[in-house]
Specification:
two-stranded antiparallel sheet, flat
């Protein structure tokens, strides 16, 4: 099981890694809000946001290629939804294509809207990747709990982190069993087999969840996230927060020009 998939570099020693998770979580939230409020034509603001993320990546001593690869994973899911926007948004026509009797037109406003969705999604995903890559997940959950996030949401995130690897391994075992029994069936056979695999995975996950829940109750679990060290906001957190606020204010003023 690849347990370091989500926070592979969270145990590195850097200035960003040593910050309190609450400070980083609040700064990520502020960054996402600024990005979402930035108009799509504010090119300077988007460039400054990218520069800020690149600077934090270097400050955290994270491999830039690793961060870039993780961030572009979100783009296919965004494009599936956003690719239709240029065709249905009204505005000045950028081009048209005839598909037999159907004329398809692309507008400049639609292309601008597509850019807006893609770049904001990518920057938001980039900030979340930096947060998870510089904070051990238990400390991050503890910080979210201290910030007032509902306990049930923290518990769901905790269980997701603990057991998503188990589900992936279970799905891989089912896939290997299918491949070892594959005698060249047709499309219908593969679809039926995939449906059976999904049903089997759901049943096994449900049964495992019941066993885990009973084991946790037997050990006195009360829903609180516990860590070996207590969270403490120090002077470095204050300096980092002020520096980030200054950068975000600069980005905000740049979009007004």
């Amino acid at each position: 099981m690849k347990h370091a998939f989500l926070d592979q570099y969270s145990e590195l020693d850097s200035f960003v890694h040593r910050l309190d998770p609450r400070t980083k979580a609040l700064m990520v939230l502020a960054f996402v809000l600024v990005v979402m409020a930035t108009p799509p034509t504010a090119w300077v603001s988007f460039a400054l946001c990218t520069a800020l993320m690149a600077g934090l990546t270097l400050l955290a001593r994270l491999p830039p290629l690793y961060v870039l690869k993780r961030s572009v994973v979100v783009l296919p899911f965004v494009l599936v939804v956003a690719l239709s926007l240029p065709f249905f948004e009204d505005g000045r026509e950028a081009g048209s294509y005839n598909i037999e009797w159907w004329k398809v037109s692309i507008s400049y406003d639609g292309l601008l809207l597509l850019w807006n969705v893609v770049v904001k999604s990518w920057l938001s995903a980039l900030s979340l990747i930096l947060l998870s890559a510089t904070t051990p997940f238990p400390r991050l959950l503890k910080g979210l709990e201290r910030l007032g996030v509902p306990r049930v949401m923290v518990m769901i995130l905790s269980f997701m982190y603990r057991y998503i690897f188990v589900l992936v391994d279970e799905a891989m075992r089912l896939g290997r069993a299918r491949d070892s029994r594959n005698l060249g069936g047709g499309l219908l056979w593969r679809a039926r087999t995939l449906g059976n695999m999904i049903g089997t995975l759901f049943l096994r996950s449900y049964e495992r969840a019941e066993r885990v829940y009973q084991a946790m109750l037997a050990r006195g679990f009360d829903g609180e996230i516990r860590t070996l060290d207590e969270l403490r906001i120090g002077r470095a957190d204050l300096y980092f927060g002020l520096a980030c606020c200054f950068c975000l204010a600069t980005i905000w003023l740049a979009k007004l020009r």
